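SEVERITY: medium
COMPONENT: batch folding queue
REPORTER: lab tech (J.R.)

DESCRIPTION
The queue accepted two submissions in a row. Attaching both inputs and their returned structure tokens so the on-call engineer can compare them side by side.

ATTACHMENT 1
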Amino acid sequence: MVVADDEFLSPEPEPGFYKALEKCGKKIGLECGESVVKAVLKDQDISKKCCVQLVHKMGRSCHEDLLWYLISQPKIGANATHVFIKGPQVYNSCVSKVGLEI
């Protein structure tokens, strides 16, 4: 998961946010990053492999930053309520799949 070129991004909510988000994306990889986004936005299932990456590599803080990024995008912002409800559900579901306490 790589953050798009600056010209296509909404203004950063705080300085360095996009750089931090890119580091988060590198922790989980493109395949699992896309899987997490699809799980949040399209209610698709996420594999145990990607759950391990999300919980053990990316972590809750990076996941929450991803959610903030998603709602900052004009096409997704209208679904902010869905993202804020589904995002934590996806993370907590992954925690259950990989057997780690929340």
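ATTACHMENT 2
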Amino acid sequence: MQVPPLYSALKKDGERLSTLMKRGEAVEAKPARPVRVYSLSLQQFQPPLFTLDVECGGGFYVRSLVSDIGKELSTCASIQELTRTKHGPFTLEEHALHEDRWTIDEIARSLEHCMSLFPGEQSHKKFKTELPAETAVSREDK
């Protein structure tokens, strides 16, 4: 069971809790809800810093996990860096397009490959790779 953080995308009356908090409105914590953790391992420990590898289901908040670890240790804990390495069928290693390949053609190819991982009509859509025709813009100085 996990209590979601107040600064989250969860909504109250159609607005994100984080937006309400930023406006200074009182926000009550949402009740604890079931979450799934498939694996949790300590990768590195150099006090006071540690690195975790977490494989979890949707709706799991790593920030809440780290906060709970701090409470259990009678101290506080926060995240210094968070990297999502997998989301659904996509992995950072297999599907991230490296900066040196950021061209319109490479991005379109990458998107087509990713779309093929989805079932149904969504995967049959093609992406337009041509750049829009340049439009001449003139401005008269007054």
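NOTES FROM REPORTER
The CA atoms of residues 44 and 122 lie 41 Å apart.
No errors were logged for either attachment.
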